[in-house]
Predict the structure of Binding-protein-dependent transport systems inner membrane component.
Amino acid sequence: MKNKYRQRLLWLIILALIWQLIASAGIFSAMIFPGLDQIFRSLINSLSDGSLLKQIIFSFSIILQGLFLATVAALLLALISYFSTTAAGLIETLTALAHPLPGIALMPLILIWFGSGKNAILLVIIHSVLWPLILNLSTGFNSIPEIYTLIAKNYRLNKIDFMFKILIPASLPYFISGLKISWARSWRALISAEMLFGAVNSLGGLGWYIFQKRVFFDLPGVFAGIIVIIIIGVLVEDFVFKKIEKVTVKKWGMVK
């Protein structure tokens, strides 16, 4: 694990040096290819006045709301699909139709039907997150070994006990994998939605921050916003999802 982080840090240093060398060489105008000193100066200024921190908190709050609602809905739909062959046909059809459809394609309709408020952004996030979660959960439910089902029948478990003691725990690797995909897709949906819908109640998130910087041709600010998104993504992946995997599926010997 330590070697992994050392390698990652080494590559980051190499990439940063290459970036700074290109910027310092003057191959491109500083207006379109700013140096790292300009980018980090813009980042520090935005953090010091508190504006960027508020936008990070806003983005986090709306993503967590969307993820929670989509996860609950996906779990319910996947369970219904597992226990009902009739419902499974409908849910599989809806998933096949909606999953390839990018959230940004629905934004004009959402804008007309629901306006440009927080609920509109939530709907875009839920759409982007719901379908991959349903797919992963359904795959996990249908991939549990047959012996688990036989054990449940042998112990005469009812459906509730079967769900919470066998079905959901056995499909946890698929669930965590789906959450990882959904986390990434929720960020894409949020940034796209905020760039289209703008600020919500005079407060926007990171997408609105990047959009504003782009409008004023503040490229260091644009890159600063992108760096913040990357850092948040890496931290959540390494310190949230990895921790969840360590105390669950890895501890139980379900994955290496």
In short: Residues 210 and 222 are 5 Å apart (CA to CA). Residues 35-252 form a domain with the MetI-like fold fold (CATH 1.10.3720.10).
